[in-house]
Q: What sequence folds into this?
């Protein structure tokens, strides 16, 4: 199910060669979060079942909303922080686990918290 | 700093919660209030809009022109939320909403996005093989129906205004609303009486 | 706003991902693709700058239609009732190049 290595103009009578992108989607330097049409996920059945949100999920979601409402961290900054998660971690972490990691990244980057403060708070946090 | 970010998530949440309170950014009470408020949004809100659009042509017109105004007209708070776009299904055209880049979802009128909407499988497949995605829900469209996949990439949030199914001509709005499901307003299913 | 409904455009075949940290909301599968403007959606601050807490200019946003069979010319894997579907995506104006009349 790989992409064709080159377009066949005879199948695309309405397209001029000059209108075709220089690289096929599968060869493009896409970021790993940019998932539209990506072959390695096309064979995955979709888990259509209901998954109840956990207390963790709800709290992370609420904190994100509050930080947005108070102008501390925008949704765009949240997304950027998620996209910066290395690919293996991005795929392994759950949705809201990515969020809390991005929130921490952004709070450090904007100076709301310092690395020392976070290190101390992590050491003191109950597992 | 990289290793700090790799801390286990439960521990990270506890640390962040503590630090935000210490710095008076927020508090456990405020977080709890926000959770309670967020829990009030659900697909029932969107369903009530769909049912009204099916029974009130003027409201339908408003909903298609300005989704947020239509929601507000039904008492659904939309202030501070992104613009709401409403995609009208017809006998020839069926819409499917996805966010391939993350998980943008019309939360103001549908509540939290479902697990599947945020999954790699859905995000990858919806734009490329929408009929196959619909088949995961057992949804088969009439032959000749064109599918239009809407990838939410920017400031709008999108919901589908599905076709009113046959056999519901004498149903009132509450009965219609009870029939409309979350998936009907994203496009993976169609309303079924 | 400079693009009207029906305008033929091409998405820039550009890859900022190669030049350093960035936040791009134009999906990879659309880079370099031809499309048709459906609707002007308004003007919004550029998310590419918001993501880095930089001042963000407001840019015109359009709903743009693309043919899926032009993007992925192989048959849909496991397709039921295969037919050409179209894609409609929000694209900011700075990613769009006006084309001449469509062929």
A:
């Amino acid at each position: 199910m790989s992409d064709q290595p080159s377009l066949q103009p005879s199948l695309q009578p309405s397209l001029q060669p000059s209108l075709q992108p220089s690289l096929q989607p599968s060869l493009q330097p896409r970021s790993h979060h940019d998932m539209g049409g990506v072959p390695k996920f096309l064979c995955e059945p979709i888990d259509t079942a209901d998954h109840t949100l956990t207390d963790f999920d709800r709290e992370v979601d609420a904190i994100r909303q509050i930080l947005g409402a108070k102008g501390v961290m925008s949704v765009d900054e949240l997304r950027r922080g998620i996209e910066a998660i290395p690919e293996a971690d991005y795929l392994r972490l759950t949705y809201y686990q990515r969020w809390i990691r991005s929130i921490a990244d952004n709070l450090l980057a904007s100076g709301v918290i310092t690395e020392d403060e976070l290190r101390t708070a992590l050491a003191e946090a109950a597992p | 700093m990289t290793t700090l970010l790799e801390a286990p998530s439960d521990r990270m949440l506890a640390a962040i919660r503590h630090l935000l309170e210490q710095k008076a950014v927020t508090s456990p009470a405020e977080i709890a209030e926000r959770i309670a408020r967020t829990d009030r949004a659900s697909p029932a809100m969107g369903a009530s809009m769909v049912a009204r659009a099916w029974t009130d042509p003027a409201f339908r017109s408003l909903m298609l022109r300005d989704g947020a105004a239509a929601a507000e007209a039904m008492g659904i708070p939309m202030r501070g939320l992104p613009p709401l776009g409403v995609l009208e299904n017809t006998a020839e055209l069926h819409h499917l909403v996805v966010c391939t880049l993350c998980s943008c979802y019309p939360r103001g009128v549908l509540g939290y996005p479902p697990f599947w909407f945020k999954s790699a499988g859905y995000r990858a497949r919806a734009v490329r093989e929408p009929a196959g995605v619909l088949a995961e829900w057992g949804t088969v469209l009439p032959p000749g129906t064109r599918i239009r996949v809407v990838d939410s990439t920017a400031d709008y949030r999108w919901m589908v205004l599905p076709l009113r199914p046959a056999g519901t001509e004498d149903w009132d709005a509450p009965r219609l609303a009870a029939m409309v499901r979350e998936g009907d307003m994203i496009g993976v299913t169609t309303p079924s009486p | 706003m400079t693009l009207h409904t029906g305008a033929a455009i091409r998405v820039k075949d550009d890859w900022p991902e190669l030049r350093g940290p960035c936040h791009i909301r134009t999906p990879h599968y659309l880079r370099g693709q031809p499309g048709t403007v459906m609707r002007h959606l308004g003007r919004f601050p550029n998310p590419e700058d918001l993501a880095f807490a930089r001042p963000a200019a407001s840019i015109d946003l359009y709903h743009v239609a693309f043919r899926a069979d032009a993007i992925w010319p192989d048959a849909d894997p496991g397709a039921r009732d295969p037919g050409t579907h179209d894609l409609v995506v929000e694209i900011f104006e700075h990613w769009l190049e006006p084309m001449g009349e469509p062929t």
Remarks:
- Chain A has a mean pLDDT of 86.
